[in-house]
Design brief:
This protein is about 55% helix and about 5% strand. It is α/β, with parallel strands linked by helices. It is flat, with a radius of gyration of 33 Å.
């Protein structure tokens, strides 16, 4: 039998997937699309909530009774559209949706501050401002330069072929040009700040930066620094592949430099920026470059305390104007002034209130589900959250939390996806706490996260002149009691974004 999800279930699944950082935007979209949904008044809820709710319950209950009587005798609305407003409003008030307060004791209050943003130009506007600093002979070359700048991507690279730019110029500006002219203007754009802008690949990007550095090198620079920089330019210009593969002995022989000079040259290259546009960041880009935690865990003298970020608990309610419309209809009905259009409006009001209720309930369920899931994770990994020691992490899969909470595995997966928890040891991704188990020589089960941590530590302490191969890493781990294969070491190393031994080699 095919099972269908209710609108509420679909709503909840979608809300569970999004992190706290985007929840506010999702709520804003719902507020804009549904006029029956409104933001609560925090002050009113704090000082007069109970009185307000009681008064509203009384007058809506009265309205509901009158509606119930009227609907029994109504022939104007088709039978399939009839509804018991008495029952409907009673359920509505039982859910306390008219003045919905979603914040409880388990939420961390956040000070509401408006951060002023400095108005700055974008990266491309910054490049266009530099057009006046180069020698462009006419308006034609200026248009070509602007087309090139507009084709530069967010990393600072020009990844469009000159032939494509030629077509763009013909289509947009009716300029008939050729590849030679486009390359000529491109060379001028490549002198812009930040260095490396307009490069067509990584090799050219690094070369542009090195040449820029050489031009700015003071005459008083030490001979070894000048020689190292010239060697770095030649490495990128002629021996880029050998450098990429870290064939340092071959480079030293070919260039005829000492090991110290080669080390200085390599250091010069490693200091370069592979994404030149990142050298220009506006104030706005800095403002949004942070993680908003969904959960907060605090150690209270050996006892862990879990709270949800206050952004998970928005104050939502049913719009008072819609309640007033119900009240007005009641008065008109008593005075026999209600029309068929008024009754049709009631159907519209019910639809919008239902939609608002579904959304409010989904937000509330999201809070409960997230808290329940995170609380179980916290209990499961209690030793880690107390100490911050990654070797204390226990093997834990989605099914473990599903069994404890009674929630479906897919629900736990949605909670863990793109969510963060703030601890005194830093802000962590939830999915980092899930791992398979590995059996040690003494029969104990440990988390693969523990093995990865030890593997990372071993590689971090290795002699970079002679990095450890995967085979040697396997033997070290086995000596520590972790029965692990070489291919598993390679898999864990790749998951940790650690390159092979040859690429970890340093001078």
């Amino acid at each position: 039998m095919l099972q269908k999800l209710s609108p509420q279930q679909i709503q909840l699944m979608k809300l569970l997937q999004i992190p706290t950082a985007t929840l506010e935007q999702r709520i804003k979209e719902e507020l804009e699309s549904n006029p029956a949904l409104d933001e609560g008044d925090e002050k009113e809820e704090e000082f007069g909530e109970n009185m307000h709710i009681q008064e509203e319950e009384n007058h809506i209950q009265d309205t509901a009774e009158d509606f119930s009587e009227d609907n029994h005798d109504s022939d104007d609305i088709p039978p399939d559209e009839e509804f018991s407003l008495d029952e409907y409003l009673s359920d509505y008030m039982d859910d306390d949706s008219s003045s919905y307060k979603t914040k409880g004791d388990g939420y961390q209050e956040e000070e509401d501050k408006n951060i002023p943003f400095a108005v700055e130009n974008t990266f491309h506007e910054y490049l266009e401002q530099q057009l006046g600093l180069i020698d462009l002979k006419d308006e034609r070359e200026t248009l070509i330069a602007k087309q090139i700048i507009g084709s530069i991507d967010d990393d600072g690279y020009l990844r469009r072929e000159p032939t494509a730019i030629i077509d763009d110029l013909m289509f947009a500006h009716n300029i008939n040009t050729n590849e030679e002219e486009v390359i000529k203007v491109l060379r001028k754009v490549q002198t812009f700040d930040p260095p490396g802008t307009g490069a067509m690949d990584l090799r050219e990007c690094l070369l542009l930066q090195l040449k820029h550095k050489f031009v700015l090198m003071p005459a008083t620079a030490a001979p070894i620094d000048r020689k190292a920089l010239l060697a770095a330019i030649k490495i990128i210009e002629v021996y880029f592949e050998e450098f990429s593969k870290k064939h340092y002995p071959k480079l030293q022989r070919t260039l005829g430099v000492s090991e110290l000079e080669l080390k200085y040259a390599v250091d010069d290259i490693l200091k370069l920026n592979p994404k030149p546009a990142s050298g220009y960041e506006s104030a706005n880009s800095h403002a949004f470059n942070y993680i908003v935690p969904d959960f907060i865990i605090v150690n209270r003298e050996g006892e862990l305390e879990l709270t949800l970020n206050s952004r998970n608990a928005p104050d939502l309610r049913i719009n008072d104007h819609y309640v007033d419309m119900l009240k007005d209809y009641r008065v008109n009905k008593l005075n026999q002034k209600a029309t068929k259009k008024d009754k049709e409006a009631i159907l519209f009001i019910k639809q919008k209130i239902d939609s608002a209720k579904w959304f409010i309930d989904a937000i509330r369920q999201r809070q409960q589900t997230m808290y329940k899931s995170m609380y179980s994770i916290m209990q499961f990994q209690y030793e880690y959250f107390l100490t911050g020691d990654e070797t204390k992490l226990r093997p834990m899969i989605l099914k473990d939390i599903s069994d404890v909470t009674g929630l479906d595995i897919s629900t736990i997966s949605r909670v863990a996806n793109s969510k963060f928890v703030q601890t005194e040891f830093g802000t962590k991704r939830l999915k980092e706490f899930f791992s398979e188990s590995l059996q040690t020589d003494d029969g104990n089960e440990v988390s693969t996260l523990e093995v990865k941590k030890i593997l990372s530590d071993v590689i971090g302490e290795e002699n970079k002149r002679k990095p450890l191969s995967d085979e040697k890493l396997k033997n070290i781990l086995r000596n520590k009691g972790y029965n692990i294969a070489r291919r598993t070491v390679a898999k864990y190393r790749e998951q940790l974004n650690i390159p092979v031994a040859r690429l970890r080699k340093e001078l």
